[in-house]
Write a structure and sequence with these properties.
Layout: H1 12-15, H2 21-28, H3 32-39, H4 47-60, H5 66-73, E1 78-84, H6 89-104, E2 108-114, H7 119-128, E3 136-139, H8 144-152, E4 159-161, H9 174-189, E5 194-199, H10 205-220, E6 224-230, H11 235-243, E7 253-256, H12 259-271, E8 281-286, E9 299-302, H13 305-321, E10 334-336
Parallel strand pairs: 1-2, 1-3, 3-4, 5-6, 5-7, 7-8, 8-9
Antiparallel strand pairs: 9-10
Helix pairs in contact: 2-3, 2-4, 6-13, 7-8, 9-10, 11-12
């Protein structure tokens, strides 16, 4: 009997009970031992078999019984994750990737949201972590305050800090090494010679790195750094950075350190009577989902936040299980051209 003729079979949804590996095995047409090997990351499963098991897991909405698994193995399958305020889209996408990676590896990610700039908030969040019930602890907030607090804490389980290292000439992030130079070269090719930067907060390594990368790319391409403004990653701060100036920088393009601030920057420039992109171009970094739907749609540097979250959890699980971390492919940042950028206006 083909799979298409099987809807009369009792399924977990129909019987109002949680799916088991035996249900998954029946739908996938494999043994329950194969499903168990798949769930524990056994590498020797044929690709076509893996595809059938994955499809069955999705179809049945299979949720692993982590309590039973933990009792049997004698160890926890819960990971505590300290995450910056999820109203900011970049960190929330990273947390989403981390959650998916944990779930697919048979772990649950317990997310603790905090203000990563507030030492008291960080201290209280660290105190919430139950050392006897977690397999590991993950920090997904890379402010200086968060990194310092996390490194000073004493944990009895594996830990991992997802923190962007400060750039040096010898070790650069993909945004600094490839992405920002490509974004600046794109504007140069449109005829822009004077570029201003709206930077992220200086207590975030990503803010410092993007500001350094902007300045280095402008210098390397023989362009003019027309000034730097600062925001806090929010759209409001991008708006305020422009709206609060008595005189705007003498620039034909603004390179903004993230898309949310770029959205605010565009609105502020419009309210000052400038047309985007006829009078001034605006580009961002991140390629958030809403960036394609603002007016005008935002040209931006696409950054693979979801994969970075997956990579962080894979690294931590490698520590927990004492095995090499699962390699996670991460897309190299690249320019996504939309309507917020255009040729430099004639002077």
């Amino acid at each position: 009997m083909s799979k298409e003729t099987q809807p009369q079979l009792a399924t977990p949804a129909a019987s109002a009970r949680a799916a088991t590996i035996y249900d998954v095995a029946q739908v996938a047409g494999v043994s329950h031992q194969t499903v168990s090997r798949f769930l524990t990351g056994y590498p020797g499963i044929r690709p076509e078999t893996k595809a059938r098991v994955e499809a069955a897991l999705v179809e049945l909405d299979y949720q692993p019984n982590l309590s039973a698994r933990s009792l049997k193995s004698g160890r926890s399958h819960r990971i505590g994750a300290l995450v910056h305020d999820e109203s900011e889209t970049g960190p929330s996408l990273t947390a989403h990737g981390a959650t998916m990676e944990a779930r697919e590896a048979g772990y649950v990610l317990d997310v603790i949201s905090l203000d990563a700039h507030d030492r008291d908030s960080i201290a209280k969040s660290l105190a919430l972590i139950g050392p006897n019930t977690l397999a590991g602890v993950l920090a997904l907030a890379s402010t200086d305050e968060m990194v310092h607090a996390f490194e000073a804490a004493h944990f009895t389980m594996p830990t991992y800090v997802h923190s962007e290292a400060d750039d040096t000439r010898l070790a650069k992030t993909d945004v600094s090494r490839v992405g920002m130079p490509a974004l600046i070269a794109y504007l140069r090719d449109l005829g822009h010679r004077r570029l201003a930067h709206v930077a992220g907060p200086a207590n975030w390594s990503a803010g410092r790195n993007r500001a350094r990368a902007f300045a280095a790319a402008v210098e390397d391409l023989g362009l003019v750094h027309a000034g730097e403004l600062t925001g806090d990653w929010s759209a409001r701060s991008g708006y305020d950075a422009i709206a609060g100036l008595s005189d705007l920088p003498d620039a034909t393009a603004y390179v903004v350190a993230n898309d949310q601030m770029a959205i605010g920057t565009i609105l502020a420039l419009k309210r000052r009577g400038l047309r985007v992109p006829a009078d001034v171009s605006v580009v961002g970094v991140d390629d958030l989902p809403e960036s394609a739907y603002i007016d005008p749609p935002l040209t931006t540097l696409r950054v693979d936040h979801v994969a970075r979250g997956r990579e962080a959890v894979a690294s931590l699980i490698g520590q927990i299980e004492g095995v090499p971390a699962r390699p996670v492919p991460i897309d190299i940042p690249h320019v996504v051209v939309r309507e917020s950028s255009g040729p430099a206006p004639a002077r």
